[in-house]
Structures are given as C-alpha cells and as structure tokens.
Specification:
alpha/beta; about 15% strand; about 325 residues; 11 helices; 13 strands; about 40% helix
Length: about 325
C-alpha cells in the first residue's frame, strides 16, 4: 500500500513515517522544508528516513495547486496522512497570511487530490487549540469547538469543517486527530521543552508564562505517531446513530470522525520543569510572566472514543518521555548534562 505523508520532515511527521515504514508500507514523504525553524534539523530527520527501504521524498509546497494535482495523479495514493501545517500559536499572531496559505489552501489541495484520485482514507492533524475558550474539562470531541483563541486554531478548525464537506459531498472518508501538547526527541526548537532544556544547559533563564499555573496534557511523540498510524488503518465510517436534529460534533452521517490524542493526565507546568531539572541535574532560573495572547490555562483530553474505536491509549509518563528528549538533545547538540 502506498501512503502519502505530508510534513514528513517535521517533528510528528518523521516519527509517523518511520512507524509506517516499519509496518511495511510504501511511503512518499512531502515537505516544503521551509525556514520557520532550523532546516538542518529537518534535513537530519529526513536523512533517517531516506536510509530506509520503501521511502521516497518530494520537496513540494502544499499550496502549489498544479504541483499537488500532478503528484496525486501520478502516484495514485491509497491513503493520505496529512500532518504538514504552519505550526505555532504565537507566530500566527504575527504572520496570519502564512497560516491561511499553508493550513487552509494547502489542506484544500490535499482534499482535492484525495477526491479526484480515489484515496480510500484521509487522516489529518488537528489540535487541542480548537477548544479555545472552552473550560469544560476534560475536552471532549462531543462538545462544540467554536470559540478558538488564535488564528492557528481557527485554521485547524477550518480543516475539520472542510474535511466534513468532502466526506459528505464526495464520500471521502476522513479522520481528524486533535493532538495535545506533543513533546519528545527530534522536537521543534520553538517548543517549551526544547527552549527550557537549551536555556538551562546554557545557564540562561527560562520564561514561565501564566506564572507557572498552566496545566498541560503532555503527550509523547511516539504515542502520537502510534495513534496516527492506527487511526489511518481504521477507515472512517458514517455513524448510524447520528441525528440531524441533535447533531454530534464528533461524528456524522458522512464517513467523518474526530478523535483526541492525549495522555489523559494533565501535568502542572512547574512539575514538567522539575522533571527537566532532574534529567539535567541542574536548576532553572525562572522568569515568571503573565499568560500570552492566544494561550489557554489548561488542556485535558477525553480519549474514550479513541480507546473504544481505535483501540489505543497513549500512556508514556513525562518522566520517561522527557528523559528520552534530554538524552537525544544532548547527543544531537553535543551538550554534557
């Protein structure tokens, strides 16, 4: 089976691609290798994939309509795992047009490619950020997600709604996965764990927003990747119990599903920092700051639908996951903790 993975040189994309290859799939990886963060890190992730049999790479921009049409027509993918996106909540406040181009126009091109080329299942990345102003915990896919607090979240919510359009009109099976605070080896330099670890090792202060009162459902990247692969193998089906007079936001009469993928155990930000300190054997200098624009105080995933339908429950504790990241970081960048 041939699978397209968009964002294959990215953090989650590279881990997911590796798992698909280990399962014996043929994978075509797509990435535009943009300069939002260090391209050499993306190249290093990619090098680990190109050494494996069954993998081919296409450097391509999702928003390039003609190139995307040609790729889908030529390759005839059976499934698509769409993980490419302009990531980051804060950056979306500075560069909104970049997010619409990449996340909305890019996803439209993926949907069109799937529609016109007989793709049997599209799985795509969404985010816990879509819950926005909602404070009803844990976040449930059965609750509305109509009050996003950043343009990044808005573009991801738009992806979910666009996917429903294509599932309803063209019977394209789509599954959206809302990720919760992903961390782990080969992570992005703009993420908290990466910045905290580097600054602690270099003796620099770390910025602790919301005065450290955040709680996050930190989810290890290997758990996320496993959930993506398993979801891709379970083709979305219409919900026979769905009612138009009492619509369930998580399912549909179309072949369209939404799932949370989170560790289901929120952790205090200060505890997260403690674990980093323990792994490094050093204390952090903390610069306490108010909450940032577009941020939310807490995330907590209800994953019962994922467990019931996909048969998977993320379970890596932060003590294990952070240790794996720190070991990778020190080796990759040549630090001695």
């Amino acid at each position: 089976m041939k699978i397209l993975v968009t964002g294959a040189a990215g953090f989650i994309g590279s881990h997911t691609t590796r798992k698909l290859l280990e399962r014996g799939y043929e994978v075509v990886g797509l990435d535009n290798m943009n300069e939002y963060y260090d391209v050499t890190l993306k190249e290093a992730r990619l090098a680990r994939l190109t050494a494996r049999p069954g993998f081919r790479f296409e450097k391509l921009d999702l928003a390039d309509d003609a190139a995307m049409r040609a790729l889908f027509a030529r390759e005839k993918f059976q499934r698509v795992v769409h993980l490419a996106a302009q990531a980051g909540v804060r950056y979306s406040l500075q560069e909104p047009h970049t997010y619409v181009r990449s996340n909305v126009t890019g996803t439209l091109n993926v949907l069109e490619g799937c529609r016109h080329n007989g793709v049997e299942h599209l799985v795509y990345a969404s985010t816990s950020s879509v819950y926005g102003a909602n404070t009803n915990m844990p976040f449930s896919v059965h609750d509305p997600a109509d009050h996003p607090l950043s343009l990044y979240a808005s573009t991801k919510r738009a992806n979910e709604l666009m996917a429903h359009n294509y599932a309803a009109l063209f019977k394209l099976p789509t599954t959206g996965l809302r990720f919760f605070t992903v961390y782990g080896p080969w992570g992005r330099p703009d993420m908290a764990l990466f910045m905290f670890t580097r600054n602690i090792l270099e003796g620099k202060p770390i910025d602790v927003f919301n005065h450290g009162h955040h709680r996050r459902d930190f989810t290890y990247v290997e758990d996320i990747a496993e959930g993506v692969v398993r979801a891709s193998e379970r083709i979305a089906q219409p919900d026979p119990a769905w009612r138009s007079d009492a619509p369930d936001p998580a399912t549909s009469s179309a072949p369209w599903r939404l799932y949370n993928i989170g560790n289901n155990q929120p952790v205090q930000l200060m505890r997260y920092i403690e674990v980093i300190e323990e792994c490094l054997g050093r204390k952090a200098q903390k610069n306490f700051l108010p909450m940032q624009l577009g941020d939310v105080p807490e995330t907590f995933a209800d994953i019962e639908d994922l467990v019931r339908d996909v048969g998977y429950r993320p379970a890596t504790p932060i003590e294990v996951g952070v240790r794996a990241f720190v070991d990778w970081f020190c080796k990759y960048y040549g630090y001695k903790p």
